[in-house]
Write a structure and sequence with these properties.
The protein is mainly alpha-helical and about 120 residues long. Helix content is about 75%, strand content about 5%. It contains 3 helices and 2 strands; from the N terminus they run ααββα. It has a two-stranded antiparallel sheet. Strand 1 and strand 2 form a beta hairpin. Helix 2 runs antiparallel to helix 3. The chain is elongated. The chain starts with 6 loop residues before the first helix and ends with a helix. The mean pLDDT is about 85.
């Protein structure tokens, strides 16, 4: 502690801080002037890079893809159900063939969406 608070050491450090402060204060107006000119320039464009924005963009893209695929699958299931109720021709496995193939196609798309979701998560 005696070495740390030695008067000559404190004087040396104070002199160094004073010198650095003088240099800083001497350069400050020039630097502020440069900064203000750059900000007010018509060609100036600000770029803000947020580290987490890339993760957010990826999550939103995956969500929209899954939502789109979900809408397509539900449309196919609804169409197949309407065909099942109204169509009484060409049966496959006890139901109209178009309904059967619609349900199978929707199931494959659902499995594909699930696997794709698992891979991207």
């Amino acid at each position: 502690a005696k070495h740390q608070f030695e008067p000559t050491k404190l004087l040396t450090e104070l002199t160094q801080v004073t010198r650095e402060s003088k240099n800083f204060l001497h350069a400050l107006p020039r630097q502020l002037n440069f900064l203000l000119r750059k900000i007010n320039s018509p060609d100036q464009a600000f770029r803000l890079k947020v580290q987490e924005i890339d993760n957010l963009r990826k999550t939103v893209a995956i969500s929209f893809n899954l939502l789109f695929l979900g809408i397509i699958i539900s449309t196919i299931v609804l169409s197949a159900s309407l065909i099942y109720v109204n169509d009484h021709s060409d049966f496959a496995f006890g139901m109209p063939a178009m309904s059967f193939f619609g349900y199978i196609f929707a199931a494959f798309l659902g499995i594909f969406a699930f696997i794709n979701y698992i891979k991207k998560s």
